[in-house]
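Re: [ENG-882] Designed sequences occasionally contain unexpected residues at chain ends

Forwarding the minimal case from QA. C-alpha cells:
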C-alpha cells in the first residue's frame, strides 16, 4: 500500500477520535493562532493537513473571513464540516487533496497553518514550495508539530516509537531542519519556540488504532530505553511520556 492510501486508511478509520482528542482540541498554541489571526486580519487562510479542523476553528475564531480546511482524508473533512456547522464557523470550507499538489492559485492565501500533520508528508520540499507559492507576498506560514530533538539518540528514539505506533509516520523534523527547509522554499523564518507535550500512552495508541502487536512492541521498546532516553522523554511507569513540540513561523518575502 502506498503512503497516501495508508494515510487515508489510518485516519479515515479514526477521524472522530481526533475531534475529541484532548491533545488536538486543547493547547495554548490554539489560542496563539487565534491571537495571530486577530493581529494579521487575513482575508483567506489555508489549513494544510487539517485533520479534525482544530487549527481551522482557531483561525475562524480569530476573525478570518474565509478558511479552507484541506486534507487527504474525506472522512476527516466530513468531521470538520459537521463541527464547523455546529460551532457556527460558516466561513470554513473543506477541500480534499494531497498537500504535495495544491489546487489553488498563486498568492491566494494571506496565512497558511499546519498543526500536527507535517510528520506524515512524503515530499517536504515539494509541499513547502507549494505552500510558498499559494501564499501572497508578505503572507505567513505557521508550522506546529512534534519535533525531533537535535541529539541523535533522542531523535532515533522518537522516530522509532512514532513509526511503531503509526505506520503512516514519515518523520518528525528537528527545528534546525525546519529552518533549513523553509529557507530552501524561499521563505524567511521569523522565529520558533518549543514546549513539552505530555502524551498518555493508552490514549496515544487508541486514538490511531495501533494494532496489539505493535502496542506490545512499543511497550518493549520503552522498557529497553537507556536511562538518558527515559529521562529525556519523561517516561512513566505506564509508558506515558512527553514529546518536544514547536511553533515555527515563516513569511513569504514581499
Amino acid at each position: 500500500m502506498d503512503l497516501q492510501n495508508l494515510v487515508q486508511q489510518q485516519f479515515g478509520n479514526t477521524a472522530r477520535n481526533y475531534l475529541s482528542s484532548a491533545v488536538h482540541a486543547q493547547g495554548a498554541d490554539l489560542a496563539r493562532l487565534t491571537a495571530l489571526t486577530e493581529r494579521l486580519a487575513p482575508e483567506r487562510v489555508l489549513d494544510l493537513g487539517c485533520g479534525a479542523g482544530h487549527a481551522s476553528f482557531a483561525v475562524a475564531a480569530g476573525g478570518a473571513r474565509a478558511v479552507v480546511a484541506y486534507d487527504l482524508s474525506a472522512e476527516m473533512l466530513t468531521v470538520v464540516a459537521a463541527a464547523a456547522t455546529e460551532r457556527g464557523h460558516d466561513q470554513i470550507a473543506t477541500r480534499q487533496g494531497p498537500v504535495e499538489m495544491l489546487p489553488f492559485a498563486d498568492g491566494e492565501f494571506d496565512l497558511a497553518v499546519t498543526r500536527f500533520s507535517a510528520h506524515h508528508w512524503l515530499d517536504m520540499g515539494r509541499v513547502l514550495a507549494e505552500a510558498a507559492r499559494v501564499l501572497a507576498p508578505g503572507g505567513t506560514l505557521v508550522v506546529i508539530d512534534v519535533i525531533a530533538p537535535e541529539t541523535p539518540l533522542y531523535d532515533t528514539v522518537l522516530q522509532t516509537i512514532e513509526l511503531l505506533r503509526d505506520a503512516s509516520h514519515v518523520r518528525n523534523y528537528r527545528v534546525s531542519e525546519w529552518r533549513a527547509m523553509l529557507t530552501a522554499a524561499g521563505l524567511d523564518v521569523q522565529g520558533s519556540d518549543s514546549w513539552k507535550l505530555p502524551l498518555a500512552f493508552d490514549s496515544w495508541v487508541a486514538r490511531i488504532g495501533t494494532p496489539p502487536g505493535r502496542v506490545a512492541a512499543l511497550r518493549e521498546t520503552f522498557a529497553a530505553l537507556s536511562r538518558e532516553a527515559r529521562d529525556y522523554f519523561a517516561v512513566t511507569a505506564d509508558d506515558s511520556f512527553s514529546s518536544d513540540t514547536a511553533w515555527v513561523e515563516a513569511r513569504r518575502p514581499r
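QA comment: On inspection the terminal residues look reasonable. Strands lie at 44-48, 66-71, 92-96, 109-115, 135-146, 188-199, 241-251. Proposing we downgrade this to a documentation issue.
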